[in-house]
Predict the 3D structure of the following.
Amino acid sequence: MKRILAAVFVLISCCSSIAFAAEEPIKIGVIAPLTGGVAVYGIAVKNGAELYAKVFNAAGGAGGRKIELVVYDDKGDPTEALNAYNKLVTADEVAAFIGPVTSSPTFGVAEASAADNIPGITGTATHPDVTKYGKNYFRACFEDPFQGGSMARFAAEKLKAKTAAVIYNVSDAYSTGLFNAFSASAEKVGLKVVASESYTTDDVDFNAQLTGIAKLAPDVLFIPDYYNRVYLICSQARKAGIKATFLGVDGTDGVLEIEGADKTVFNGLYFANHYFSADPSKIVQDFSKAYETDYGLIPNSLAALGYDAARILFEAVSQAMAGGAKIGPEAASYQAIIDKLAATNLDCVTGHITFDANNNPIKEVSIIKIQNEAYSFEGKY
């Protein structure tokens, strides 16, 4: 009789333990710049990821377990980003992570996560090298070569431009990669690059470079950088007498939200982006309305990509669990999630997404124009 009671006790204890484990949240890390020069991006990505976590958990979570986001501020700095990653892995024991947001901080994190084989996805880091460290690391956004090349083709084919000038940040991998992609594609489509001027991250005065460009009177001026420097360059370019059409990339998104900026300097500017909030499709409108309800803002592309990165990762976690994986800070769990990430086939806010052999999404770019201090959709390209 004692043996039967003991067995029953053990059985009850095991069942209680299993039930408790099933109720434990699944920890997912988020690394984003919440302060510093690109905080607009980091906050948008965090908001997007948190919004999808709310939607996902309300729908029941992954196999009955909720998602718990553990968020760290990397300030847009590579060292801070790597420190955040190490804390997520060693102290928080996350099952996977989202981030970082910009390309330079992402390199070290992607490399470290490859050594650990921990599943990760950046919503927004567009430099081609960030997914080359290992099979564990993915991205929701398109690569720099794709958008840089798209803008060169757009200038030649749609704007009928014959000449272009470029001003780029030589100390930033994102900006340099876009410059290289634009220049390579320009040559192929017959767009002559008449000037390639550079600066470094701490520069705020671009008059020397812009004065030289003004003398050449190019048809377009390509500015592959983030919104804060794009504003400085556009302002100084107009004062220098440059009449060229400005071209930007996804880093341009957010320029109209700069407090106190003279928004007239952006009139006529085109930039590549990942989505447009006025897209009438149901998935975009549902996302936009939910975001506005929670944050009181129209979501920018960074928010959409944060949302999509969370959706892609959480779906992979769900599918790994459905396949029998026990989700947690263990090698088998990591590999099960990585396998499901590689098999992604989802309709997302920024488009339908599958991954190629290098963990880069197969999707289209959207062209956005700024006119009369507002964004308008020029179409997919």
Summary: The longest strand covers residues 192-199. The mean pLDDT is 92. The radius of gyration is 23 Å.
